[in-house]
Amino acid sequence: MRFAGKVAVVTGSGRKGGLGESIARRLSEEGAKLVISDIGGSRDAATPDAMIGGTAEMQDIAASLPTQASTFACDVRDPAQVAALADHAITTHGSLDIWVNNAGIGYIMKPLGEVSPDDWRAVIDVNLTGAWFGLQAAAERMIKQGRGGRIVNIASQAAKSGFPHAQAYTASKHGLVGLVRSASIELGPEGITVNNVCPNHVTTGLGKWQNEHFAELQGISVEEYLKRMAGRIPMGRPGLPQDTASAVAFLCSDEAAYITGESMNVSGGEEPH
Questions:
Q1: Is 0.85 surpassed by the pTM of this model?
Q2: pLDDT tens track for 34-56
Q3: CATH number, domain 7-202+240-261, options 3.40.50.720, 3.40.50.1820, 3.30.450.40, 3.40.50.300
Q4: Helix, strand, or coil here: 139?
Q5: Is the per-residue pLDDT at 204 higher than 90?
Q6: Coil, strand or helix at 267
Q7: CA distance readout (Å), 115 to 43, 49, 119
Q8: Is 225 among the residues known to form the active site?
Q9: Which Gene3D superfamilies does its entry note (predicted)?
Q10: Nearest alpha-carbon partner for 157 in 10, 20, 273
């Protein structure tokens, strides 16, 4: 029960079987009170219902956790909504100790020449600017509380290497590396650590879509695509949601109190730098 008495916010945690749910569940199982947050419903063409966590699904996830949990719909592209999410954690559960920026767009994948300005902005606005809004809101409240805190971004293997059809995604995740390197310097004296977790491919609902998308592009079956993927991973398999959740739990724990500004690979050895 490493997180008994702690309150955690996990953005993008409203889809069953997703990384956000797995992270929230792991923190809850170790004692944290949770705020399950997702966009709640489609807001525009960049946030289709099939790819986001809806209000009912958020509520189902919160109800299934072993500790006290609430839900809060938030579009991370709006700093006012992100600030309201942080305030909700404090007014509802009593504090804000852990903030996980997990919300992201990983489903706008197009050849370089087909990426529109709207596509680019949608991905950067959620994956990078949204994480910045979350970091800023969480840090402000953690500093005021005066007892430190933990901020973790879910980056990606794409924070370290490039991938075709993922220009905006890769740029946004690389940006998170610079963000934590800078923020950790300022927040270290406050006892707040800021880190990234960089998983390789995980077959969540989004991951399933990615499997089908890239298998089709290569003219192979999904089974063959996954076989080739496993073949280049030293551990012989793609990542699992619990692999990422375990890394987040470690970085949020007292055991990681002296780790900040890092971008931790969770890739089965596929991404060694």
A1: yes
A2: 999 999 999 999 999 989 999 99
A3: 3.40.50.720
A4: helix
A5: no
A6: coil
A7: 20, 21, 6
A8: no
A9: NAD(P)-binding Rossmann-like Domain (3.40.50.720)
A10: 273
